[in-house]
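Researcher: We plan to redesign the surface later, but first we want a full-length starting point. Tokens attached.
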């Protein structure tokens, strides 16, 4: 078994190479053992529409029941619907079989104990249980439950829209399309569905809305048909991508401005969390509207944990993970986030670009990712901190975010890949280039030395 499939936030690997039916059976044994030792005996299982998901579902359920855990098989659903089941059915834990936005030959597992998604050391504990072969035994049973219907009814009850909007939906042939399209129709939205039937081959494009190429189709649809907005989803429905009425992409941090303004109207002084990659203008806007802004580490499990700690009604990441505690359960559900956005737009006479027109002009780069081995990536960050200390202002909550009067630059080590992630923002194009060159050259020199 490849030990590297046990990652920071999930278990993930290449199908039939890292993840065989036998490995997945052992993951089932390990999860069952881990849960049983915590007194958790009823486990919900959801899965995305990947081609390998059903064979893995069988193997996983066999492992779990062999340890004595009972399994509630939820069938095909989004990751947030698996989270929903943990609140709604009140069982002891859950496992989602999903490769999220990765290519079709990947798959993986997100594991929840109670309503908490495990990460870091807890995931390594599953690996250790397998390596020691130290499994519980018993005879669990499997039953089926149609959670998708419950979820749809629950969501529909939460919303009424004052206006009929024209909205394109691109589900990238992942799990979201068959959930959101009927929900929006019932709520009176005029839906233009793109790639909304499930197909684990992802024939048109990868279901990853952070990649520009994957949004080209929805952008041209909006422009051709003069729609109010476009909403794209990743394969398992926990990340959202928004395109405005002009066909312009609204990244996670701008989207958070819309949500945070809406929440701060009803909850003055609320705490709102975003990750270190987000624009300075998001943090300024939260403060300007009377909110308490917290900049936090990138990673959905880390954001969720912080949200609970400080009782934040809203959190969001640049990558499109948006978490609503306000009127919802506090996990990242892109379908729910889509409905909250439609609600905001249906409540005003303004378009998305008009709503965001008062944000100061800024120049940003997308995420820049450079290869850097797992062995040295954190040392690069430490070296950079040492070099900057005393000379420049920086925030080191996750990597280094160097603050200038007229911009900032971020260098952080990815928790999930052998990669350094950089992003830059400035008040002018020229300044953006200067900040970028300054920081990149420092990183290059450190890489040469190490
Ligand atoms: Zn996802």
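Model: Full-length starting sequence:
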């Amino acid at each position: 078994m490849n030990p590297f499939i046990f990652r920071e936030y999930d278990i993930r690997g290449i199908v039939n190479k890292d993840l065989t039916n036998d490995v997945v059976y052992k993951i089932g044994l390990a999860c069952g053992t881990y849960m049983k030792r915590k007194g958790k005996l009823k486990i919900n299982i959801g899965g995305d529409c990947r081609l390998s998901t059903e064979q893995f579902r069988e193997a996983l359920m066999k492992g779990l029941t062999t340890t004595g855990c009972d399994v509630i098989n939820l069938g095909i659903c989004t990751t947030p619907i698996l989270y929903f089941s943990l609140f709604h059915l009140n069982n002891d834990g859950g496992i989602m079989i999903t490769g999220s936005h990765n290519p079709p030959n990947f798959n993986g597992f997100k594991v929840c104990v109670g309503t908490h998604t495990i990460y870091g050391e807890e995931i390594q504990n599953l690996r250790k249980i397998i390596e020691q072969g130290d499994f519980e035994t018993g005879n669990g049973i499997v039953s089926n439950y149609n959670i998708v219907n419950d979820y749809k009814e629950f969501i529909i009850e939460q919303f009424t829209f004052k206006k009929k909007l024209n909205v394109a939906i691109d589900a990238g042939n992942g799990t979201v399309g068959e959930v959101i399209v009927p929900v929006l129709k019932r709520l009176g939205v005029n839906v233009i569905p793109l790639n909304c039937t499930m197909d684990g081959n992802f024939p048109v494009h990868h279901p990853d809305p952070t990649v520009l190429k994957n949004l080209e189709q929805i952008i041209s649809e909006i422009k051709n048909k003069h729609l109010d907005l476009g909403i794209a989803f990743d394969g398992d429905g926990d990340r959202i991508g928004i395109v405005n009425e002009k066909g312009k992409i609204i990244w996670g941090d701008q989207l958070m401005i819309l949500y945070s303004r809406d929440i701060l109207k009803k909850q003055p002084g609320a705490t709102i969390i975003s990750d270190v990659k987000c624009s300075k203008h998001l943090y300024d806007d939260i403060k300007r509207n009377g909110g308490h802004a917290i900049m936090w580490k990138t990673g959905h499990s880390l954001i969720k944990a912080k949200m609970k700690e400080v009782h934040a009604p809203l959190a969001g990441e640049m990558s499109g993970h948006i978490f609503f505690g306000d009127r919802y359960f506090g996990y990242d559900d892109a379908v729910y986030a889509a409905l909250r956005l439609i609600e905001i737009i249906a409540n005003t006479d303004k378009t998305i670009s008009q709503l965001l027109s008062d944000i100061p002009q800024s120049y940003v780069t997308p995420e820049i990712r450079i290869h850097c081995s797992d062995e040295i990536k954190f040392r690069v960050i430490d070296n950079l901190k040492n070099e900057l200390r005393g000379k420049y202002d920086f925030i080191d909550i996750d990597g280094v975010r160097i603050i200038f009067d007229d911009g900032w630059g971020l260098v952080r080590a990815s928790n999930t890949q052998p990669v350094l992630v950089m992003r830059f923002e400035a008040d002018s194009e020229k300044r953006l280039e200067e900040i970028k060159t300054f920081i990149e050259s420092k990183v290059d020199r450190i890489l040469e030395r190490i």
